[in-house]
Amino acid sequence: MPSVMEGSEGGEEGENIHYEETEDDNVSPTDLSELLKEGTKESHDRAENTQFVKDFLKGRIKKELFKLATAALYFTYSALEEEMDRNKDNPVFAPLYFPLELHRREALVKDMEYFYGEDWKEKIQCSEATQHYVDRIHHVGQHEPELLVAHAYTRYMGDLSGGQVLKKVAQRALKLPSTEEGIQFYVFENISNAQQFKQLYRARMNALDLDKNTKERIVEEANRAFRFNMQVFDELDKIGMSLTEEAQDGGVPVHDGKGDLRKCPYYADKLAGKAGPGCPYHTAMTLAKQPIVQLILAACVAVAAGAAAWYVM
After folding, report:
1. Mean pLDDT, to the nearest integer, of 110-121?
2. Was 151 annotated as part of a binding site?
3. Element (H, E) at 9
4. Has 202 been labeled as part of a binding site?
């Protein structure tokens, strides 16, 4: 699913999203934020190196697949925010309750309407991997609310970090409107400074009254959240391999095995809905097959060879 979890910061399209290293003199190695950062590094690296995420970062995202990933996010955040609302007054989670700043469900509804139309609810369904993730979130929210911290941390902090890179990649690769339709999920209108907000969030986490055992369980649950996300990534990757060329709205066919079709000015115009001259590649290949042209080319080569021999004497 298109979001890179907490512990990542962005680079340019096609680059890796590296683990975020922030220095804070006030942070102790026993603080929950540090325990989560160190305890999930390996999981983060594995998630970042799934084929789905690597392809996404390179701009190789198919529109149909992006739509399915967005639907998976809708089901995930609907469950997460339902359980957060349930525990908004519970001291083990209440300090991390930021509905105005963080909640994504309403933004995802807008994205669903953009991609699927007004009857979007009738067109989407929760996938098997996403359902496992959703079930775990509901279990935690109802029976182990202190572990809800792990799920909120891995999702929202990642959305504010690497997710902002994915937003730009998706917008370019899928040619989405500059007005941000289809990627409202990544738009946090009520957070003016993401870095400052993440620092506030970590400070709130570190202030939770938790014993060592509970902190260890939260780190373990965060790693579990990463695994759920990787299972969704793998599921999407398998679906992507089964899509036909015509269904790959985000991709572009290869130009006669000689390169990316987008690099051909003729096809660039065609994709943009313009009428233009014939493709230089196809034009050249067609002319080269004509006998008279072949004779002229042979003569030119002979003259060029003679000139070159004279030059180096």
Report:
1. 97
2. no
3. strand 8-9
4. yes
